[in-house]
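Recall the central idea of this unit: under ordinary conditions, the amino acid sequence of a chain determines the structure it adopts. In this exercise we apply that idea directly, starting from the sequence alone.
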Amino acid sequence: MDPKEYLRTLRSLHGVAELLLAGPQYRASGTIRLAAAPGGFATTATPRLAVAGDVLSADGAEIGALSGSTYAALAASAGVSAEPPQGVYADGSGVAPQDTIEVDPACARVIAAAFETGDRALRAFAPEATPVLWPEHFDLALTVAEVNYGVSPGDGAIGEPYAYVGPWTRREGAFWNVPFGAARTLTELSDAAGVREFFAEGAREAGGERSE
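Accordingly, the structure predicted from this sequence is:
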């Protein structure tokens, strides 16, 4: 898989999550929380929008392919406006409504698989919590005892899917290998069970014991 193609797809899907799902949902329902869904991700409130692979759907009906369209044109087809949630966070995808969406199907499958793995691992690790796909950084996460646990499909620092443990207060030790805490690639962790074990180890290292 071409790393540049992957990052282009990642940026485009981040933009879709932010401008076409989270923004419209925030204006209609007051929440930016998204969720992992079969083949991609979806809103958690109205409007009911979802992405599976390279296709946007509204209320279960396909609207059209993502790739080759602009955010603004695809939003108009879905009956929404291509705008991020205003005033909620400072960072974001960096895309504009008139930008063209670029999604490579193979890269989109890797991203969707990362969210699926992360969702299963997070639910097994903390059954009492609900994983949230946050549009700001386009990662799936939850928080337990002031420690963030999540899976990212990649970013400028780590250009492939990875799991992370991020304590609100900095910890010291060999386990903590990145500035915000600890991170391991999904390739290294193998599967959802491996990711869950990494989260459990992170909880122990952070002082919030959880059994494996």
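The first helix runs from residue 3 to 29.
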